[in-house]
Each structure stands twice: as C-alpha cells, then as structure tokens.
Amino acid sequence: MSEIRAFRTEELKARSGELHCGDKILLTGTVYTARDAAHKRFAALLDEGKELPIPLEGAVIYYAGPTPAPEGKPIGSCGPTTSGRMDRFAPRLLDLGLGGMIGKGERSQEVRDAVVRNKAVYLCAVGGAGALACNCIKSCEVIAFDDLGCESVKKLYVEDFPLIVADDCYGGDIFSRGRQEFCKAE
C-alpha cells in the first residue's frame, strides 16, 4: 500500500513535481467550488477583461455543488461533479495560474496537456461519498454568483480531504494507466 502524504492547498502547485498519478494525499487549506454555470461566468468575465471572483494563482477548484448545511454543520453533502463538463474551460484557467482541480472522472487530452504545461495537478475525490466528504469541510462561505444556488462559488476550508492524483505534471493519467493494467491482466 502506498504512503498517504499531507499537502496544503497553497503549496500544491509548487510541489506538483512530487506527485504522481495514483498517489494518495490528504489536502488541507482553501478550496473554491465551481461547476458548469460558474465556469461559464468565469469565461464571460475573462472575455470582457474583468477579474474573476477568486484568485487563480495556485488556487484549487473543487467541481462540486454542495447541498445546504444542516444545523450545526458548515455544509451539507459535498461530493465531486463529473469533471469532463468543465474541460472546455480548464485549459484557460490553468494557463492563467490555476494550480489544481478536484472532481471525478477522466479529463480530455487538452486538459491533461494543460496540467503538464502549467505544472498543475488533477485530483479525484471519491464519487458517491459526498456525505462523508463534508466531514473534511470546516467552513463554507458563498463568495460569488449567489443566484446560482448550490452552483454558486464557495470558499471552503478543508482539513485532511482524501484525494487521489489522477493527472500529474509529467503526463501520468490514472485512467489510461488503469486501462493498460486491466488489459495486461486479461
């Protein structure tokens, strides 16, 4: 079994060279949620030459639309969204300094190339485990696009959020590797 290492969000991009597809990490720090609708607004703002509501340099975006918080909790269920829906937006954000993305599922070749080009990382969270993931979230604040409801952009503080490196800055891709290993086993 591989070692599970701790990383802070603010150092994730700078330390991306230490990560390889298949590595398991525990992430602590600030993460921003953004899904399809928020990404469309990000693109529109950038097209208009305006600033985004989040600082991109080294930031980590979690593709999630959390449910409302039950009493006594900062957030409700907060599982990952299928990342491929953000593929048309991700290369641009990575080129502008985004350090990492969290979601579920395979990414396009264009996104994988942008991860390598920008020395970033794509991390997978366990799908279907949103109720468990919310236990790692210690605070939640809506910071943009409140009218989008669960798809508004939120600033989360996570502690020891368990993730798997899916795409690393060397071109490693856990999905391609998994298919190759499966075919060898047959």
CATH-defined topology: fumarase
- Say how many strands there are: 7
Largest sheet: 5 strands, mixed, barrel
Number of domains: 1
Overall body shape: globular
Describe this protein's structure.
Strand 3 (60-62), helix 2 (90-95) and strand 4 form a beta-alpha-beta unit. By secondary structure, the protein is an alpha/beta fold. The mean pLDDT is 93. It has a five-stranded mixed beta barrel with strand order 2-3-4-5-7. The chain has one domain: Fe-S hydro-lyase, tartrate dehydratase beta-type, catalytic domain (fumarase, Alpha-Beta Barrel), CATH 3.20.130.10. It is built from five helices and seven strands. The radius of gyration is 16 Å and the shape is globular. It has helices at residues 36-47, 90-95, 109-117, 130-133, 174-185, and strands at 4-8, 24-33, 60-62, 100-103, 121-124, 137-144, 153-167. GO terms for molecular function: hydro-lyase activity. InterPro entries: Fe-S_hydro-lyase_TtdB-typ_cat, Fe-S_hydroAse_TtdB_cat_sf. Keywords: Lyase. This is Hydrolyase, tartrate beta subunit/fumarate domain protein, Fe-S type.
Please outline what is shown here.
It comes from Ruminococcus albus 8. This protein has helices spanning 36-47, 90-95, 109-117, 130-133, 174-185, and strands at 4-8, 24-33, 60-62, 100-103, 121-124, 137-144, 153-167.
Search tags:
186 residues; alpha/beta; 5 helices
Layout of helices and strands, plus pairs?
Elements: E1 4-8, E2 24-33, H1 36-47, E3 60-62, H2 90-95, E4 100-103, H3 109-117, E5 121-124, H4 130-133, E6 137-144, E7 153-167, H5 174-185
Parallel strand pairs: 1-2, 2-3, 3-4, 4-5
Antiparallel strand pairs: 2-7, 5-7, 6-7
